[in-house]
Each structure stands twice: as structure tokens, then as C-alpha cells.
């Protein structure tokens, strides 16, 4: 079974929405955002307005996605990417497909002149932490905060 990693197309909107709900609600247990908000996000990223999304397609099904947001590093005075999402359906986690999606994001970052790619993951997501360590990532000394 071969997989294709590609940029999101507008035809993917419905299938990607379901995949995003599997991520948001099913994986992280967060409230289900309104479908109009998800569609607006997909549309904005499709037009590279502040970021880009990639999907993994296997036999006509979407099995994963990744989201890169574009930002700037003040410390380096260079543009960077922030990998906000890296999600695959459960049977595909820990496989070569997961590594390929990660590497696709990493390559996009390099090929488009971004200084680096950064991301965060849940403190309790030890499987993802082990994966990122395996990919050669470096844990930083920064502490992440959030406020509403």
C-alpha cells in the first residue's frame, strides 16, 4: 500500500474536516469546533494565508495531515515554520508514513528558505516525544504558556 503526501486541495475539505475532528475531539478530547470554522481554516491554509497543510492519501483515503504556520524568529530575524499539527490515524502511527509526513514538513521548511521548524506536543504524549527524539529533534529550554 503506497501513500502520497501532498498539499491540501479544496476537494479534500470534507474528508480533511473529519480527519481534523478525529484529531481535535478523538485524540486530544477537545470540544468539536463548528464546521464553518474548520472550513475557514482549511480554506485559508489552502491559499497559504499564514500557513500550509499537507495530507497523506492512501488508496483514495486521507489517513493523516500536518499543518505548518509561518512566523518569524526575532532572535534570528528569519522566517520559521511552526508545525502545529502532525496527525495520523492510529494504524499509521509509528510507521514509515509518519516519518515521511514529518520529513515532508522538514523539507518544505528547508526548501522554502525558513530558518527552522519548531513545534510542541503534549506533556503526556510520550509516544510522540519518542518519535521526535528519533527524528533528531532537539528539546528546547523554553517553557510554553497560553492565555485567553
Can you walk me through this structure?
- The protein is α+β, with helices and mostly antiparallel strands and 148 residues long.
- 35% of the residues lie in helices and 26% in strands.
- The protein has 4 helices and 5 strands; from the N terminus they run E-H-H-E-E-E-H-E-H.
- It has helices spanning 13-27, 35-46, 96-111, 126-134, and strands spanning 3-7, 51-58, 61-73, 78-88, 117-118.
- The protein has a 5-stranded mixed β-sheet, sandwiched between helices.
- Strand 4 (78-88), helix 3 and strand 5 form a beta-alpha-beta unit.
- Helix 1 packs across helix 2.
- The mean pLDDT is 91.
Structural class: alpha+beta
Instruction: Count all strands and give the number.
Output: 5
| Count of the domains | 1
CATH class descriptor: Alpha Beta
For the largest beta-sheet, the strand count, sense and barrel status come to: 5 strands, mixed
General form = globular
Strand content: 25-35%
Distance between the termini: 44 Å
CATH superfamily: Gcn5-related N-acetyltransferase (GNAT)
Mind telling me which CATH architecture this is?
3-Layer(aba) Sandwich
Q: Which topology does CATH recognise? A: Aminopeptidase
Number of helical segments with 4 or more residues: 4
Radius of gyration: 15 Å
Which regions have little confidence, pLDDT < 50, spanning 5+ residues?
A: none
> Topology as H/E string?
EHHEEEHEH
Cross-sheet strand order for the largest sheet: 1-2-3-4-5
Mean pLDDT metric: 91
Q: Share of helix among residues? A: 25-40%
Amino acid at each position: 500500500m503506497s501513500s502520497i503526501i501532498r498539499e491540501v486541495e479544496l476537494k479534500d475539505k470534507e474528508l480533511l474536516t473529519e480527519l481534523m475532528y478525529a484529531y481535535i475531539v478523538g485524540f486530544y478530547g477537545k470540544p468539536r469546533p463548528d464546521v464553518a470554522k474548520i472550513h475557514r481554516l482549511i480554506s485559508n491554509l489552502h491559499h497559504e494565508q499564514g500557513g500550509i497543510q499537507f495530507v497523506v492519501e492512501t488508496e483514495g483515503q486521507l489517513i493523516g495531515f500536518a499543518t505548518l504556520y509561518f512566523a518569524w524568529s526575532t532572535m534570528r530575524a528569519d522566517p520559521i515554520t511552526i508545525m502545529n499539527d502532525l496527525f495520523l490515524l492510529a494504524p499509521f502511527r509509528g510507521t514509515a508514513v509518519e516519518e515521511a509526513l514529518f520529513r515532508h514538513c522538514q523539507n518544505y521548511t528547508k526548501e522554502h528558505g525558513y530558518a527552522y521548524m519548531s513545534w510542541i506536543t503534549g506533556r503526556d504524549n510520550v509516544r510522540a516525544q519518542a518519535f521526535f527524539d528519533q527524528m533528531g529533534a532537539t528539546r528546547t529550554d523554553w517553557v510554553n504558556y497560553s492565555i485567553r
